[in-house]
Amino acid sequence: MLTWLLSSWYQPSSQPPSSPSEEILCDTTQHPILSSLRELVESGGGEWPPRATYRDTWPIELRVYDSVWREMEPLFPARESSTDNAHNRQLINAFRNHMQALLDERINMRNVQSALDRAASDPQSCSQGAWLGIWLCISMLRHAYRWGVSPIVSEAQNEETLDLPEQLNVPWRCLQKHFGTTSPGGCMTSLMYANLRADDRLEYSVNIGMPETHQSTEYWNTKLICSMEERTLTMYHLFARTIAFLDSGDLTSATATLKSANEVLKTAFKHFFATLVDSNLVQSVWLAYVQGYQGWTLEGIDGISGGQSLLFRTLDAFLGIRPFPTSEKESLHLPTQQRAWLNFLRDYDIRAKVKENTSDEAQEALTTELEGLVKQLRLWRMGHMRRMQPYESVRRPERKTMTAGISVVDAENENLMIEHLKKELGRRLAETI
Length: 433
Ligand code: HEM
Known about the structure:
Strand order of the largest sheet: 1-2
Number of domains: 2
CATH class of the largest domain: Mainly Alpha
Largest sheet: 2 strands, antiparallel
Distance between the termini: 35 Å
Bound molecules: protoporphyrin IX containing FE
CATH architecture of the largest domain: Up-down Bundle
Structural class: mainly alpha
Shape: globular
Number of helices: 19
Number of strands: 2
CATH topology of the largest domain: Methane Monooxygenase Hydroxylase, Chain G, domain 1
């Protein structure tokens, strides 16, 4: 399906694979699950987690969006927030007017349209990495326009609809088509995976000019999400190979492969809890200066949730943890190749297959490993529920209580918000069986 991508950048080499992504691309196992995994890696520009490329690699007519963002970037954050709605309305309008004026002045829509048409029809003119970088840039512009000021304020949360500038809508429609997503706002792939550079810095920030704690919390937030993918890509490969072994009747190799997957997951979860600590993600800073702008909350559509991270969707899909999201809901924020990978795992339904198709002894060994993964996922869900509480209970009077992923809650106080979130997360924990 994505052979055009492969031809533009990937040259098979005689050297041994140097990374988990390359190992997947070099794996010649003939099985549709391996093809699906290869397409996932290709959709990330040849790496998973994705490797976006920035301004200088984009079609020349689109680079002006980067210039507009660079000019708006330092104007978005405010060190102190106000609870005065009229004052906040002025701030939001001034920011939006400024961005609109820059877009009007700098962007030639005819040039943009023709660059986008060229990129869509001729992959040589725009690599997948460049598409990802452009997606990041337009997502940042759209989220900044949507909120007008960071930390976000209730004056903007009260808006239910919003007309965005045409200069941001035209590329957005092409990006939606290219990536297969339907949300008008950004998602984990566009705003987080695409924002971590190869040299381990963020390309764009919503904390320019803010104290070091704000900037490092923003960095660690994205870093943790990306490093969880980095650390579990090998596990995705092991899942795919387990399925291929099962289908070829090699149950011993399938069991050994699942055992290794359990080990990979254990190490990754240790990393999660060692990293999600106040010295990296500062509790007093995270909610207002990092999480806020990632929300969307217009026309009933949400922004980023940790629930969009591919790792947890992969675990739920592989282990058959139900209910599965509807395809309509999943298409909002997950690109085509991520959904295809997940749907393959769901349809395969490994736990049912092992139960129905294997003899007693093999079944026991395979089930032990599968249940080991479920147990780890349950423990992670318990730990995540505890860890999120100090972050979500910070008092921010300028805004209504909200998570970026499940919208404005408008609880009367922070304790009620935490109770609400515990119920939401507790439901998924109870389903993890
Ligand atoms: C400061 C750090 C974090 C906080 C405060 C936090 C908080 C939350 C909250 C409140 C929810 C439920 C509402 C929503 O979806 O927006 C949630 C969901 C979720 N978060 Fe986090 N989160 C954090 C970091 C992460 C990270 C780094 C990951 C993954 C690497 C993650 C993965 C998830 C998942 C998978 C869900 C969906 C619920 C589930 O599957 O159990 N979270 N998070």
